[in-house]
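Researcher: Checking consistency across runs. Here is AhpC/TSA family protein again:
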Amino acid sequence: MKNLKYLIIALLIFGCKEKETPLEANKFRIDGEVTGMKSGNLYIFNFGADASVDTLKVEEGQFKYEGTINEPVKRVYLSAQPKITKPDDPFTTLYLEPAKMKLNVDIDHINKTKLTGSKTMDDSYRLELKRDQIKEKYSEINSEYRAIRESLNNATTESEKKEYSLKEAELSKALQSYNEEISIVNQDFIANNPQSYITLSNLSYTLGEYSQEEAQNIFDKLPEGLKNSREGKVLEKEIQDKTKGVVGAKAGNFNTLDINGKPIKLQDFEGRYLLIDFWASWCVPCRKGNPHLLDLYAQYSPKGFEIIGVSDDDTRQKAWREAVKKDGIGVWRHVLRGYQTSEDIADIYNVEGYPTKILVDPNGIIVGRYGNSPEDNKAMDEKLDAIFN
């Protein structure tokens, strides 16, 4: 009788407890708690091929979110707003996996949202912690740099512009150390976490810091599921594209119209050295480098040197034409890159940032590739000097 009593009590306790349905394959479930919102909506944004917005109904400060993941990891964005239209709109990135997860949301500090139960999210938090430590170290310099930039934009006299420009250059140099430290942290994570989705994602953003061989070695260590994911396949193509536009490779052909509507193709420059200058009207370092390019052109063009400007201004053609005129660089020919066409010149040469300059010899072989660092500019000058002098 006593045992029966305990059995009834046990049945009452455990029988009343709601059974949680086990997850099916490729499914996820999130139990969410919200601080600062008793009832209302949160929004999950899916970008890419499956772009959509899911509405999460918050009741009594809680919500549930379930769905399907067809790849190892699904990156989404959480916001309290039905639209994300500006970079400073409050949102946070979440990495979802086929698992049961918990999400704690502070509606007033959406960027401090905490997701548990996702190993990828844990990896992201570890990397962000190290990045945040570096950001804190350089916070004063960053604040000062932003203030100087604002002062420079609002300067009305030449003396003010000169003063603020010198200060901006000084702070930019100091911030190079910040960028270098961030780069080291990213590279360390990639090297020590070859199986992580965050490695795949980070490699996509920092691909320019690696040679084609280095990037391929990192990619080869990723799990097959990540390699075969949509993002993995995009990254694989980008890595393969790194063989394009490199020193020693054949220069990619193009056939387009110049700024005056005249046909122009790579073969037009056979027999001469050609510097392909990838730039944009909105690119400050590009514009600052134009006086030096004019000096080089004046010095070497009589000896068989040509320049062609390839601009990332397909959607800003008026600004492009005005920049060419204002900077006085109409002495050489100019084309648009052909963004989103079958012949995107920047894609042909695997150009991801501006300015980028590619030197092609008279036989159509790439003999130099230069970015915007002082070392690159010096190397370009020395190369041209060695060729023509």
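Researcher: Does this match what you'd expect to see?
Model: One thing to look at in this run: The chain has three domains: 22-116, 128-241, 255-388.
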